[in-house]
Amino acid sequence: MMRSGSFYFALALMCTVAAAQSDTCKDLASLKVDGVEITNAVLVPDGAQIPGPGGSLAAKLPAHCRVDGVMHRRKGVGGQDFGIGFQLSLPEAAAWNGDMMMQGGGGGNGVISYPAGAQYAGRRSGLARGFAVVSTDTGHKAKSGAFDFSFQKDQQAALDFAYQANAEVAELAKQIIARYYAKPASYSYFVGCSTGGREGMILSQRFPTEFNGIVSGDPAMRTGLSNLAISKWIPVAYNQAAPKDESGKPQIEKLLSDVDRKLFMDSLLKKCDARDGVADGMIFDPMGCDFDPNEIACKPGQTESCIAPAAAAAIKKAFSGPKNSYGRQVYPGFLYDSGIALAGPVPGLLAMHSGGIFGAYPTSTEIDVDKEALSASDPLVEPASTNLSTFSGNGGKLIFFHGDSDPWFSPLDTLQYYQSLGPANGGADKVAQWSRIFLVPGMTHCAGGPSLDQFDMLGAVVNWVEKGIAPDSVNATGKAFPGRSRPLCAYPAHAQYLGNGNTEDATNFRCQ
Questions:
Q1: Residue (of 182, 167, 132) closest to 18 by Cα position
Q2: DSSP state of 299
Q3: CA gap 41, 380 in Å, rounded
């Protein structure tokens, strides 16, 4: 079929499916829609566990009909097969809550995550709550892992990934849902993190009536510029101060010793941890944290309980973010937070070594920010628009969250975008009537770190859309601190201890 826009696609689809209704999973296997192939429709029994990376995506799923299919199958650049793959989970009619949820992707997409709706839904997945859940690979199959972007050589595949596929799959899912239950979904929601967070922003900006509620976490909103910061600016700043080997090559891993790193983190926490009323290994007031690495730089003649002045200056420069030759900030800096020294496959911004997150610049000591920034932006992919008058005017609600220790995308970039919504949409108070942002202390990229990274943003956006209850706070727990709960507070508030009661219990904190 000719792809001239989601409106025409939806119109053609409505005409195709309106003539028939069915409440059986089996019948969906023979669904005929122009440009769509249903490759499977199967009943999944109650209690099934769905395999996925690191275990099951949901503990136990309720009985549901799973529909698999492909939209717009075609041959593209180099004779490669393309098409927008999707999966849709339909709970039993008696269990359906009347709504649809779409879950976002990650990395370069190219895979279809099982549509369980477990992302940022707390203890109960979206499917377990009765949502019809849909997911998509956004138009291509990954060949070499989660960050395979080779598909972008094909223009249509690049367009599908950038913004088209999610909207088209959402339209198709709505029509299949209407056919299966003999009535349309009452509300539609989108929840995603990283690439999924970017997708949520894109949908609010380019398809403002598609979803009633959107949750956008740690959005990969300006990947080129974030890569400039973490894989070039930061390692160059460290390399300039690092000791050199006999050939003059910087030894970035020797800039700070383990003792130095511990001193740094202890000093940071000592200054900023207890600002919320309790020293608990978490910084809940990051904007009020005025820690300066130079505070622990060695003074003349001092050799203990301090770090080299050059190292302190390098860290401060690295965390301040890249600036061009005119002193203009081209990407925001990063927060000093409790998870910045983490080691592992994706090290924190203070866990320096010669590879990993620092990419192709492990030995460089110079960077031309002006030149690098010129090619670091991609308007096709980046969700930069701030005029959301149609989205908000249609009753849409948009929740952001971002981990304060995210080593890939600065939480300050997401915060600055959120703040920029004010001038374009009637002011900050007006924006707060339909959008909120939550900063998550200690959390790295989308999860992990010394954090409370389990929280129900799906429930928060549903209550806001359907009951008019704006989320001033969302309770969070996490494996890093068993038995602990805290309120995540909508910016600019943060969790503050009341001064009495169990410090591990969220009920003894207020947002201020």
A1: 182
A2: P
A3: 34
Same domain, 200 and 233: no
DSSP symbols for 466-478? HH----SEEEEE-
Active site (annotated) includes residue 353: no
pTM score of the predicted model:
0.94
Q: Is 194 a catalytic residue?
A: yes
Domain boundary among 325, 350, 374: 374
299 and 430 housed in the same domain: no
Catalytic residue among 218, 406, 413, 456: 406
The pLDDT profile of the chain, 512 residues, written as one tens digit per residue, is 346 444 334 434 443 443 333 458 999 999 999 999 999 999 999 998 876 554 445 568 999 999 999 999 999 999 999 999 999 999 999 999 999 999 999 999 999 999 999 999 999 999 999 999 999 999 999 998 889 999 999 999 999 999 999 999 999 999 999 999 999 999 999 999 999 999 999 999 999 999 999 999 999 999 999 999 999 999 999 999 999 999 999 999 899 999 999 999 999 999 999 999 999 999 999 999 999 999 999 999 999 999 999 999 999 999 999 999 999 999 999 999 999 999 877 789 998 765 545 555 688 899 999 999 998 999 999 999 999 999 999 999 999 999 999 999 999 999 999 999 999 999 999 999 999 999 999 999 999 999 999 999 999 999 999 999 999 999 999 999 999 999 999 999 999 999 999 999 999 999 99
Which residue has 């910087």 as its token pair? Answer: 250
Q: Give the count of domains, the chain.
A: 2
Could you tell me if 47 and 147 lie in one domain? yes
Cα–Cα distance measured from residue 15 to residue 455, given in angstroms and rounded to the nearest whole number: 40
Last residue of a domain, one of 374, 407, 425: 374
Catalytic residue among 64, 72, 140, 445: 445
Q: Looking at the structure, do residues 160 and 75 belong to the same domain, yes or no?
A: yes
Q: Which of 125, 194, 405, 435 is catalytic?
A: 194
Strands 213-217 and 187-193: parallel
